Amino acid sequence: MRSIIKKITPAVFRYYYQQTKQLIYKIKGVKRKRRLITYLQSKNNLPLEESELLHNLLKSNKITVFPYDYVEKYHWQDIKMEYDKKEKMYYTLLFGDKRLYFKQKMTKRSCAEYISSIACEQDLQSPHCYLSDTFTVGDSAALVDAGAAEGYFALSVIDKAQKIYLFEPDSEWRKALEATFRPWREKVEIVPKFVDVRDNETSVSLDAFFENRTYPTFIKADIEGFEKNLLLGAKNILTTASSLSIAICAYHRQNDYEDLSKILSGYNFSLAPSHGFMFLYTDGTFPYLRRGILRAQKDLYNEEIKNK
């Protein structure tokens, strides 16, 4: 129903609707930020990360999901965009000279704004960053990118990976992904399905998908609140994979971090959060703070040595 309404509603009305919606969120965000500051100030012996967060909230008047200084490095005006007449898509050069394409309907500015926000999300200081100095994609990795969207993450590790599976149900993004990863078509497979616990025409579980394939060694997941279903549909992989790292979004639902941690700890993964917190001012659940990424790692060889 939502997609039908979107199609029949004029673009100008959708634009102003979104602008009004964002304004309302900002107004609520001001009140929620004040409440959050009061809450943090009332706590004794704040942990280092919360103390850093409070310092940043106090010194800035901005209402942002990422209340940290590093965001000031990113400006959409600094992004250089080019237009590919053959593909009929804008693209930008990343990670050297690699082209990353965008949806055909996106304007030059919307592409620049979009990729600037993604680069900001993946800064090493960001709560949404999948990797860290010590948590990385290994050489010759078999990578699952669930919720690939524009493919930024996969493109950032394309030279290291041996095989990449891009799960992306959005047909507009898939066309852009095909253009982006054409130079590596021999090792990149685009899967036009949701990753879920179920297997049907539109969804697939990881256990079913990898039933006759070599198991992945790295899983990145950003699937809009269905991350728990991804894990529930990957029991065989989580149980038997000899070496596996997972970077999974843990902020879409209020209890995601705890729920996902419980599942993965049951498979003997070592767990760690990304740095800091996201300020979900658009959500009414106090105190509006959530961990961004849960990083999980299991290496059976190291476990055997440790247990001897």
Explain the overall architecture.
The chain is of the alpha/beta class and 308 residues long. The chain has two domains: 2-62, no CATH class; 136-307, Rossmann fold (3-Layer(aba) Sandwich), CATH 3.40.50. Helices cover 37% and strands 19% of the residues. It has eleven helices and 14 strands. It has helices at 2-8, 11-42, 48-59, 108-121, 152-156, 171-180, 206-209, 227-232, 235-240, 256-265, 300-307; strands at 82-84, 89-94, 98-101, 141-146, 161-167, 188-191, 194-195, 203-204, 218-221, 243-249, 270-273, 278-279, 289-290, 293-299. Strands 6-5-4-9-10-14-11 form a seven-stranded mixed sheet, sandwiched between helices. A three-stranded antiparallel sheet has the order 1-2-3. A two-stranded parallel sheet has the order 7-8. Strand 2 (89-94) and strand 3 form a beta hairpin. Helix 2 (11-42) crosses helix 3. Residues 301-308 have low confidence and may be disordered.
The run of helices and strands is HHHEEEHEHEHEEEHEHHEHEEEEH
Summed up, the helix count is 11
At CATH's second level, what is the architecture of the largest domain? 3-Layer(aba) Sandwich
Biggest sheet features: 7 strands, mixed
Terminal CA distance:
58 Å
Shape: globular
The rounded Rg comes to: 20 Å
Give the full name of the CATH homologous superfamily of the largest domain: Vaccinia Virus protein VP39
